Structures are given as C-alpha cells and as structure tokens.
Automatic annotation (TrEMBL):
It comes from Paralimibaculum aggregatum. This is ABC transporter substrate-binding protein. Residues 1-27 form the signal peptide. CDD domains: PBP2_BCP_2. Keywords: Signal.
Length: 326
C-alpha cells in the first residue's frame, strides 16, 4: 500500500509545530513516544477523511511520534488494520464498509473508539431547481413519476441515480431493489466525479439525483435538497419483510444514518498508549471539516496548509486531546 510521511514544509508549518510542541506538558513528553515504530494512519478516497487523518497525524507528530499515511480502500483497509500494518483509521463510515468493520471488531484485532462527532447525514440529493419541473419533490413518489427526467441512454427506460463509487459499497443499488423503484444505480468513479456531475448539472440546469452526504463543502455553493423516503428508518426495516411497504424485501425504508467512528489496531493501546488516549478523545465537528474541505477542493489550497491554519486557530480543541487532558 502506498505510504507518505509528512514533515513540516513551510514557515507556517514550522511555527505551528513549535507551538504544538510548546503546548505539550511534561506529562505528555514523558508518555510519548513509547515506541520508535511509526503510527500508520489510513487515507481513504475523499478529502474530508484526508483532513481528519492529517489533523490527527500532526498532533501525533507534535508529541514526537513518527507518522506515515497509508493509502487504502474503504474495505481493503481492514485487512491491513487487523494485521497491524495500519494503526489507525479515524473516520470509518459504517455504511461504506459492509461486514468488514464488524468482522474486524469481532476478531478482536480492532477496537472501536467511538463517534468522530461529524453530525453527518446521507441520502439521495437533487438540485432544488428540479422542484419546478418535478412537482411534489422532495417526496420519493414524485421522483418516480419524473423518472424520465433523470433517465440516460445508459439506463432508459429507467431513471438514473448516481451511486457512490463501487468500492464504497452498494447502498443505492440495495435501496432501489428493496423499494422496487424504476431507476438504476450507476456507480460514480470517485468523489471528484460526483462533484463534477453536480457542478455540470447546475451549470446546465439539468436534472440529477445522486447519493451524497453532509458535511461536504458543496452544500455551501449548491442548493441541494434531499429525497424524502417513507417510512423512516427503523431497525425492523432491515430484518422484517412485513414491516415496510414491500412484503418481499427488507431495507424498504429511509436510509439508516451511518455511524462515523474511530477505529484502531488492538495492539495500539500497548504499543503507543498515549497516542491511543489521544484517539479516544479526538473529535471533529462537521462544520469545521466542511470549511476545510471547501478551502482544499474549491479554492485549491494545500491540505497541510489548511490543516495548519485550523490547528493554529483552535488550540482549545486539540489541547483537550493531549495526555494531560485525560
């Protein structure tokens, strides 16, 4: 798996590193680093996760740890985490990883350190201007009635819903089947491809429905609505075919909102106990993450520069993660 090791690369980064180091108390200095082995942090396919991973990595570096970032797919990463080849994954979206995450926990080789705190939401999004040509939106029944508007040559006579990239799971395709909809889920190539579709649709004022999420910077620039699916999610929807409107299927209800958790190789607590404690306390607000992603993806600024600015502006937040805070 590709790796990268970051080091301060600018005057801003050097000043920030000094400030971070100065803020660590003697207790933190005594506790870390407990091992000269690098802490290896997983990097997934979307910018928000890059932000989360880099914030955590820079705090670890300020404590004296060597940090490496390992590029890994949302599902394949768990093989490396279970084997200890990757140490930490600070942003695990449960809906993207199928049984890989539960199986890793059940094996005892990984531990769940709780919610990241993003205040996230996922569902089928659409440009709000579609409400003029498809009356009744955001109701799902209205979308079904307007399926020809979102059909393409690839899907006709079915409508098209742009799904997550294939290695993020099959959530859209599963929901379409469970709900018995006359639409087809087509996997996007990447997060960037999804954003490009949104931008193109708004530029041309054409219909589009896609699986998407919040927090994400696109909501600050584009007016997106969410398709309303009934009944609302309940645990029985996943197990009892008689519970929802389709007596032949489970999952025929609104999307379950994903848990976004922090995970680590189980050996981390013994190898780097102070770093493990930081991960336990680590949390990131979705609004803050979205603002950083906007700076990176929309304004083209370097990831590390944006993260450095956030750390410099929010010492009260990250200081609460350090060993003395625990």
């Amino acid at each position: 798996m590709p790796t990268r090791t970051t080091k301060p690369s600018s005057a801003i980064a050097l000043c920030l590193a000094s400030a971070l180091a100065a803020s660590a108390t003697q207790a933190a200095a005594d506790a870390a680093p407990e091992s000269d082995r690098p802490i290896r942090i997983a990097i997934n396919e979307w910018t928000g996760q890059h932000v989360t991973a880099t914030i955590l990595g820079k705090v670890y570096q300020s404590m004296g740890y060597e940090v490496e970032y390992v590029t890994a797919g949302a599902i394949p990463q768990f093989t490396a985490l279970v084997e200890g080849e990757i140490t930490v994954q600070p942003e695990i979206w449960s809906n993207l990883v199928g049984d890989a995450w539960p199986n890793a926990l059940a094996s005892g080789a990984m531990v769940n350190l709780g919610s990241l705190g993003l205040n996230n939401f996922e569902g089928w999004a659409y440009p709000k201007y579609m409400e003029e040509t498809c009356p009744g939106l955001p109701d799902l029944a209205a979308l079904v009635a307007c399926k020809d508007q979102i059909a393409t040559a690839e899907t006709f006579p079915k409508g098209r819903i742009l799904a997550y990239p294939a290695d993020w799971g099959t959530r859209t395709i599963d929901a379409i089947a469970a709900l018995g909809l006359p639409v087809q889920g087509i996997a996007a190539g990447s997060e960037g491809a999804m954003v490009a579709e949104i931008r193109s649709a708004f530029a041309q004022q054409r219909p589009l429905v896609l699986m998407f999420w919040s927090p994400h910077w696109v909501h600050a620039e584009f007016d997106l609505g969410w398709i309303e699916i009934t009944p609302p999610f309940a645990a029985e929807c996943l197990t009892d075919p008689a519970w929802g409107p389709n007596p032949d299927a489970t999952g025929d209800c609104a999307f379950e909102q994903a848990a976004v958790d922090k995970g680590a190789w189980s050996g981390m607590s013994e190898t780097w106990p102070a770093a493990f404690g930081v991960l336990e306390r680590f949390a990131l607000d979705g609004t803050d993450q979205s603002a950083m992603v906007f700076e990176i993806d929309r304004r083209g600024r370097p990831l590390e520069e944006v993260v450095d600015e956030w750390l410099a502006a929010n010492p009260e937040t990250w200081k609460a993660w350090l060993p003395e805070a625990g």
